[in-house]
Amino acid sequence: MSDLSDLYQEVVVEHARSPRNAGVLEGEGVLRADGDNPLCGDRITVMLEIDAEERIREIRFTGDGCAISTASASLMTEAVTGLGVADALALFARFREVMTTDADPGATSADVLNTAARDATVVDGADVGHAGVESADPDSVPPLGMLEALVGVRAYPMRVKCATLAWHTLRAALPDEPAAVAPTTRTVPVSGRAADSVPVVSTE
């Protein structure tokens, strides 16, 4: 195993053991979605706040999942904090393509936005639509960075859904964004207020 592979394995293990941004985020403006991977039993709730400039100001997650699911959620929250909604969607598009194909993790920003534009209208063969990703700034979309620690998971197709669950759930939570994987809706009490409708994403 190479030194880089060793480092990436250590990153995944460390984030699984001590996940960043784990916990509940409460408040009147909190957006929330629940995700479920029935194949592995992973369940996750993503909560986030968007500021006046349409940037992800704060993000938290809770749930029960395998090491890969937990590490991916932890790495995701670090990667998207401070990003604009369109840039976060573009990063999701890059990560999803790298995890589900043999795409180069070091793709250029132009490649990322082309992928995002495509995924904005068609995901897993379904027309889901999206109005905001076109506004992503090519110069502001970050590289995968430490998210590359998860690329080795694509060698195990059954575990890819564990790695992408948090991202699909984030996408469902974003404003005016249809869930990436045909969601159902259930009523869940949030922050002690009247029950809200929360999208539930299934990767099944």
Description:
By secondary structure, the protein is α+β, with helices and mostly antiparallel strands. It has five helices and seven strands. Helix 1 crosses helix 2.
Distance between the termini: 33 Å
**Biggest beta sheet summary:** 5 strands, mixed
Write down the secondary-structure element order. Answer: HEEEHHHEEHEE
Q: Could you give the count of β-strands? A: 7
Overall SS class: alpha+beta
Number of helices: 5
In the CATH hierarchy, the architecture is Alpha-Beta Complex
Helix content: 25-40%
| CATH fold-level assignment | Sufe protein. Chain: A
What is the name of the CATH class? Alpha Beta
Task: State the shape.
Answer: globular
The amount of beta strand, in percent, is 15-25%
Mean pLDDT score, rounded?
A: 77
Summed up, what is this model?
With 204 residues, the chain is an alpha+beta fold.
Topology summary:
Elements: H1 3-17, E1 31-37, E2 42-50, E3 56-64, H2 67-80, H3 85-100, H4 109-121, E4 122-123, E5 126-127, H5 157-173, E6 184-188, E7 196-202
Parallel strand pairs: 1-7
Antiparallel strand pairs: 1-2, 2-3, 4-5, 6-7
Salient structural properties:
Sufe protein. Chain: A, five-stranded mixed β-sheet, 7 strands, alpha+beta, two-stranded antiparallel sheet, 20% strand, 204 residues
